[in-house]
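Worked problem 6 (solution included).
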Amino acid sequence: MNRRSTCRALLAAALAWGLGSPARAQPRPVRVVELGRLERVGAEASFTFAGEPAYLLRVAPPERPSSRVQRLGEIFLVAFSRTCTHQGCTVPLPDQRGIMECNCHGSQFRADGTLLRGPASTDLRAIRLELRQGEVWAVGWLEG
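Solution. The predicted structure is:
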């Protein structure tokens, strides 16, 4: 068996196990923060989800519907992975302007995780939230 055959066999095995599949299994739910700690717009929490650094931010009610903004009770939240979609570096928290700039290659994202400027070509991966007995939980990936 030559190198090319070996690589094809390994790739086929990985795809068969779902490792290369874009539709990944949903990660284990994680408790993020008590709802009472998010009293005002701009309140935030850092956490780890699916082994990745993540960020939650309370935002004002959106003027237009947004698939990234989630309503839990009477508040609106966004949550996303801080893993840059360009090459996997960790994006720092938002600065005073509400911008997150990846230190590796300069991609910029808004404080809601949406792409402002590349080289990344997609938004930071959004996290689906749920309210459970007064606590915010990260429960899966928001697709689309």
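Discussion: The radius of gyration is 17 Å.
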